[in-house]
Amino acid sequence: MVYGWIPRDDWLASVQRTGAAHGDVQPEEGDWVALNRQRDAYALGAEFVHGVPFCDANGVWRTIHDEAPNNALGNGFEVLGFYGLRFSSAALHAAIALGREEEPKDEGMDVFERRMAHLWLADDVLTFSEQVCRWGGKTGFRVWGNMLRHAREMGDTGGTKLALALRQWLAQAVEAQTSASVAISAGIAIKGLGVSYASKHLRLLWPERYPVLDSLVCDVVGVAMNTQGYQLFCDLLIDWRARHTDFHCYGLGDLEFGLFRFVRHRGALQMPARMGLGSDSVGMVRAASS
């Protein structure tokens, strides 16, 4: 019986992290690997502080630790929800921790954030902005190129005016009284910089206050990719964190960073239907049997 599913890339990363001998397991449903409890417990991180999140037979993101003998719920776990996403507490903690280890691949998120903050403090704002765009993914090269192109079209061949606009925007965003909507609005006023990459700039400098908002999050959560949508997303995260004491220690950027690990695998929301299973409501579920 299928125990759960895990995206192939996450599976291979966990096999490498744990040293498990299951790297030859092949994807069975698109890019998803079917899991077995006895075979895959070690590969899923059973002996590590954080296990790798996977999608179980109920369509809930969880980890192998949710069924540990010392689980206070006795082989059960509470399902948390965030606007279409369903996950255990252990899964979200793991997603945040593993994400900070893995992104960016060459140095880890903690180091990358410190380096970005140093560039900002050193007033090297153009280098900062370019590296944010590169961090953002394949579309980042196009975004950075568009920013430079718009600057040149306005006669700013050396980027002096672009640097000034970026500096003024971020100086405003750091002020305590600046709302998320005002901060993002001032960012997207810079030609070539939309909501997604403007929010990436904010998040890398001040992860306590600012999350990233991109199209994947919008599709799942149901917020618009605009100024009002960004403010709403921040408000939703603040409200959710206030109601879940286990996550008070995280900034909005970290919460979104963990949730995005689930969001980026769009197929997870359809996995129960693919396996011919129903979708349980948020509440208490029992660990699936193998």
Count up the domains.
2
- Shape call: elongated
Helix content: 40-55%
Q: Between the first and last Cα atoms, what is the distance in angstroms?
A: 6 Å
Give a quick account of the main beta sheet: strands, pairing sense, barrel closure.
4 strands, antiparallel
H and E order:
EHEHEEEEEHHHHHHHHHHHE
> What is the CA-atom radius of gyration, in angstroms?
21 Å
> Helical stretch count?
13
Taking pLDDT < 50 over at least 5 consecutive residues as the criterion, the unreliable ranges are 275-290
Describe the structure.
With 290 residues, the protein is α+β, with helices and mostly antiparallel strands. It has two domains: 4-102 and 264-280, no CATH class; 109-250, no CATH class. The chain is 48% helix and 9% strand. The protein is built from 13 helices and eight strands. It has helices at 8-18, 37-40, 89-102, 109-121, 125-135, 140-153, 160-173, 180-188, 195-205, 215-221, 227-242, 252-263, 271-274, and strands at 4-7, 32-35, 54-56, 61-62, 76-78, 80-82, 85-87, 284-286. It has a four-stranded antiparallel β-sheet with strand order 2-1-3-4. A two-stranded antiparallel ribbon has the order 5-8. It has a two-stranded antiparallel sheet with strand order 6-7. Strand 3 and strand 4 (61-62) form a beta hairpin. Helix 8 (180-188) packs antiparallel against helix 11 (227-242). The longest helix is centred in the last third of the chain and has 16 residues, at 227-242. It is elongated, with a radius of gyration of 21 Å. The N and C termini lie close together (6 Å). Residues 275-290 have low confidence and may be disordered.
